[in-house]
Design goal:
alpha/beta; protein phosphatase; RNA polymerase II CTD heptapeptide repeat phosphatase activity; about 190 residues; 7 helices; Rossmann fold; nucleus; two-stranded antiparallel ribbon; five-stranded mixed beta sheet
């Protein structure tokens, strides 16, 4: 594969990790991140989320939730998701702290708010390399079924970008073709490292 990809959602749990897992299995150079202040997972009620710091291992979250209420977290898909995540990487990482990871060619976000945070972060960094980075937002609801669908759509787009002679010259056509075929509107922007 020619390019380095980053998948970004709010907590680096569901949407970004589903896409990370799928792209990794397909041989892509991919990483994933979250943009939130903390990692939040559903709890027993909407007012009682489970909150962890970025860097807390997925295995530790899995053990914690299994101890709290194994039936609830199995039924709502959180335990299987954490098990999948721990097979991809050790712990959720925060986008804003990824400067040491180098630069990406393409960054996918799965929510407009996350897209805005990524763009703002890139604009506020020192752009020393003057290397372009394509940032695409593919709006995906934060549930397991939609995350799986979103991951497949992200894979399709990544394959199109990889196949292009130069994404800089063909991105408008790639996006237009995708939007027409999938009937989904994408946001995209070009920024720099």
């Amino acid at each position: 594969m020619k390019f380095r990809y980053a998948m970004v959602c709010s907590s680096n749990q569901n949407r970004s990790m589903e896409a990370h897992s799928l792209l990794q299995r397909q041989g892509f150079h991919v990483s994933s991140y979250g943009t939130g202040a903390h990692v939040k997972l559903p709890g027993p009620s909407i007012r009682e989320p489970n909150v962890y710091d970025f860097g807390t291992p997925y295995k530790q979250m899995f053990d914690d939730l299994r101890r709290k209420d194994p039936e609830l977290y199995k039924r709502n898909g959180i335990l299987p998701m954490l098990k999948r995540n721990s097979g991809v990487k050790v712990a959720p990482q925060r986008w804003q702290d990824n400067a040491a990871d180098g630069s990406f060619d393409v960054v996918f976000s799965f929510e407009e708010k996350v897209f805005d945070i990524v763009i703002e972060d890139l604009h506020n960094r020192d752009q020393l390399l003057m290397k372009s980075v394509l940032v695409i937002n593919l709006e995906v609801k934060d549930n397991h079924e939609e995350a799986a669908t979103g991951a497949k759509l992200a894979l399709d787009l990544c394959q199109e970008i990889e196949a292009a002679e130069s994404w800089e010259e063909s991105i408008d056509d790639i996006i237009a073709g995708f939007e027409k075929q999938q009937r989904r509107k994408l946001l995209y922007s070009i920024s720099f490292y």
